[in-house]
Amino acid sequence: MAGYYNTFVVRIWYDEAGKMARGRIQHIGSQIYTYFENLEDMNLFILSYYKTKWIANVQVITNLNNRPSLEYLELIKEEKQMSTEQNKANQRRIFEEGFNKGDLSITDELIAQNWVYRGAEGIELKGPDGFKQFITMYRTAFPDLNITVHDMLAEGDKVATVGIISGTFKGSMMGIAPTGKSLKITAMAISRFIDGKEFEVLQVMDQLSMFQQLGIIPAMGPGKK
């Protein structure tokens, strides 16, 4: 979640003996400074903020012989790991509870108010209502819809997922009448999270294979053009 809006600058002053003399924390984007006399209080402050806000980018600045603050470097590493793992867990819940089970109650917990979906098929949906519409559309068309996560990677505020989408086309979708045929295709989604909520999704799937499997367009074979 690196960025202007979620960066702290931590400055630590040391005395000539190498002992911390004073510490200051500034949240970038504001002129608000908080001063501390010891590392313990600074740790408590940042840990408390992290646990509630999932801030994942801290810059550490020192001013005496460029002394490293190992306490904060370890804190950054630990909190970044916590943030990415939480984003992955929330992404998996969106697939398993939202799409596979049709549980729309997860929307308030996992979907941001400014959520936006962009698909290769030209669909663009926005907001929590757009998320619910998206799930309802697919589960109406495929009542047995199932998304199986094949691989998932996270870095910063992004989560990339490769999965298998399967289901039986039993309800109309985007004006296309159901054919009763089944599909099994590979899809990829790249999502961005803020404060543990998904707020942007870009999805790519094998649409040609999807339409062929569902009988919407003829399958290509040897000698066919």
Short description:
The chain has 225 residues and is of the alpha+beta class.
Percent of residues in β-strands: 35-45%
Q: N-to-C terminal Cα separation, in Å?
A: 47 Å
Low-confidence stretches: 1-5, 51-59, 61-68
| Mean pLDDT reading | 80
User: Which fold name corresponds to the CATH topology of the largest domain?
Assistant: Nuclear Transport Factor 2, Chain: A
Which CATH class of the largest domain applies here?
Answer: Alpha Beta
Morphology: elongated
**What is the makeup of the main sheet?**
6 strands, mixed
SSE run:
EEEHEHHEEHEEEEH
The percentage helix is: 25-40%
Question: How does this structure look, described?
Answer:
The protein is of the alpha+beta class and 225 residues long. The protein has two domains: 4-68, Signal recognition particle alu RNA binding heterodimer, srp9/1 (2-Layer Sandwich), CATH 3.30.720; 85-213, Nuclear Transport Factor 2, Chain: A, CATH 3.10.450.50. 32% of the residues lie in helices and 36% in strands. The strands form two sheets. It has a six-stranded mixed sheet. Strands 3-2-1-4 form a four-stranded mixed sheet, covered by helices on one side. A hairpin with a 5-residue loop joins strand 1 and strand 2 (20-27).
